[in-house]
Design a protein that fits this description.
Elements: H1 10-21, E1 30-38, E2 41-47, H2 57-60, H3 64-67, H4 84-90, H5 94-97, E3 101-108, E4 114-115, H6 121-129, E5 134-138, E6 144-147
Parallel strand pairs: 3-5
Antiparallel strand pairs: 1-2, 1-3, 3-4, 5-6
């Protein structure tokens, strides 16, 4: 928003909602939220956390990747969580995802600063397979990034 009373544009609006969805995340390291939107209508949401019926990190008090000081983007097999993007895709109607946009926002649990919302390689593949046309995420610097799934570098 440029002025105090100006309404947020659509990307900022949906990223703010994705960030709020991420408040439900159960990760001790980072909270991510994702929403899938088509024609300015939210068709699905997701946040990162353990699969249904399994113990969440916030309940066990253990984040294996944090304990081992694993950098972001590495050794995902150690993590019990399903990513926010994955949960949003799993919960969405496949037909509605075709041509949609996914919005991803993340925060670091330690200090509530922005975490890069850029999807990992596996999530990028899932986004592409779901026929989602556009990925919008906030970077660590707070800047809004808009890319086609095929443009994601990971």
């Amino acid at each position: 928003m440029n002025q105090k009373n100006q309404r947020p544009d659509w990307d900022e609006y949906f990223l703010n909602i994705a960030r709020e969805v991420g408040r439900r995340a159960t990760c001790l390291r980072r909270r991510y939220g994702a929403i899938i939107v088509k024609d300015k209508i939210i068709i699905s949401t997701g946040y990162n956390g353990a699969p249904r019926g399994e113990t969440n990190c916030i309940d066990s008090g253990i984040c294996e990747r944090e304990r081992l000081k694993v950098p972001k983007g590495e050794r995902y097999e150690l993590c019990v969580a399903v990513h926010a993007e994955q949960n949003a895709i799993i919960n969405a109607d496949p037909e509605k995802m075709a041509g949609a946009t996914i919005y991803i926002a993340g925060v670091n649990c330690a200090d509530d600063t922005n975490a890069s919302g850029e999807p990992c390689k596996l999530c990028r593949r899932m986004i592409q397979n779901a026929r989602i046309a556009k990925v919008v995420y906030r970077g660590k610097d707070g800047k809004i990034n808009v890319k086609a799934p095929s443009e994601i570098a990971n």
